[in-house]
Amino acid sequence: MGDSISSDESVFGLAVAMIVLTGLAVCLRFLSRATTKTSYAADDWWVGIGLLFFYTLMGLIISNALSAERGSPPASETTLKIYYAAGPMSVSATAAAKVSILCLYRRIFITGSFQRSSMVVSLLLFIYWITSVLGGLLACVPIQAVFQTDLPVTCINTRAFTLGLELLNCLLDIAILALPLKQIRKLQLTTRRKVQLSIIFSLGGLTTVAGIARIIVVYLPSSTSDVGAGNMIVVTIENSLGIICACLPTYGPLLTKAQAIALSLNTWYTDSGGRDRTQSEQREGSQNVQAGDKPARKLYNQIEDGALDNLYLTEAIRGSAVEHEDVSGRDIALDTFKVKDAAEAV
User: Fold this and answer.
1) Distance from first CA to last CA of the chain, Å, rounded?
2) 8 Å CB contact between 94 and 239
3) Which of 101-115, 216-230, 291-305 has the highest mean pLDDT?
4) Alpha carbon distance 115, 126 (integer Å)
């Protein structure tokens, strides 16, 4: 019982974290579109639909985790209903994210061959979506027997069915990842830029990794059920990554704006530092002038005492020397002392 509650707490914490991260990713996507002042396209709306399915799924998972913490039996009718509804929500969130990616590709790459290839993948995706939802809802007949375990029921092999769907899901992920790579190689860009774009479009491969993890969790021979804490954790991560990865390629305008802001801040900081250095130099110059008071007074005394027969006068002004050509017969004002007419310059 304690292990079950601990697992449900982990599921709850992960669900809350993914709700925040996924919502932030979608908000940044729409903010990026608003930055360019362009109208929203089909890929934006599809990712929004995927987010709604994902939030519904998270609500079901959190509800189940909270009911488990309250001590409800793990196979209660409420829990079984939650599992029953979670399946179609999970598939729909994943499929909507994939549709969003395909719509984005079709908006960027407009060549005829790419449009045809992406249409074929889209058709396979919708077949996968419909099959998964209907298969999950009609896996057991009658449907009431899913919630009422005392009724006679006939079910398909749900483990094999889930395995087949996840394998198809992984193949679709690979096909979607491969679609833009050929087009990127044809672009008139530097090799570095092509690599960057390929990496960005390949980030969707993270969902493939999550799909493989789900296959392992569901199809392990030691597994007693295709539902449970482990499956819920993998489902949460898989759906969240699908939506986040669908948003990543759209962040270009935001990154450009962030770089501009960083450059402005750096320029402001540099200018501010320059002003500080100028003020520091001025303070040092003033200190140097003050430090020269004593030698100046000493020289003045020497002149009054007649110790110097001939004198060549210069005035120090911030490191430069200004010569006084005619100083006989009048007072010469320097910064900190005055030479009387007894001095004669040569």
Assistant:
1) 106
2) yes
3) 101-115
4) 16
